[in-house]
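Technical note accompanying the year-one report. For the benefit of new consortium partners, we illustrate the data format agreed upon in the data management plan: each record pairs a sequence with a structure-token string. No post-processing was applied to the example shown here.
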Amino acid sequence: MNLRRVGVTLLPPIVFGVLFVGGWQAFVRLEDVRTFVLPAPSDIWHSVTEAHSRIVTAAGHSGLNALVGLLTGVILGVALAALAARLPILGGAVTPVVAALAAMPIVALAPLLNNMYSPLSTLPRREVVALSAFVPVFFNVLRGLSQLAPVHRELMQSYAASQTAVLRVIRIPNALPHFFTGLRIASSLAVIAAVVSEYFGGLQDGLGSRITSSVGASDYPGAWASVLGSVVLGLVFYIAAVLLERLVLGSRATSPV
């Protein structure tokens, strides 16, 4: 039964993906689209097979930056959300600032941070990732910790439960699904932020650097091959977050995968 459910879930995206790639290939060949406009999937795959070891190495560097930044952002987001939920005055003061941070574009922040550190430092990239991951985790955890049903509140008051007991018994279990929603969003944003931050100088060892260098050398299939590597890296992070959610929440997991 589970295998059948998995098959029903996976079949539509697989069929769509095959049709999409086939249509892309046919369109490029039939319309004689220039490579610098849109390479054919076969050309991109040829670049992947030729440079797969370099793409994997670059993905490792980008993935490490994304992982460190993601963990940092998650820890800070959970900690600040817990304080904001415990101290409403602090929450009212901090929430608009975090909302302003959410509106800050990566392309504006990354070059500024790069100028603050050594060209060989990975800190600016990881800080960009941490900021990108921090925002969705903070808002989701804060929402989960703040939503306390009246019946639960009255029940805990009838037992004269302490705030610590309310946190342990009610607030944290209620916040866990919200936390994993924020984590799934943050996991994808972490890879995006890590790759984009590599466009603006610093160490030339990640997928973003490979994309810019390939475009500079007019190797457009190679650039798309690195983009494909970043897509795969993003899927790895997202699937890891989904599996962790299912491991912790079991049947309460809300993720569609």
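Partners are asked to follow this layout when depositing records. The first helix runs from residue 2 to 30.
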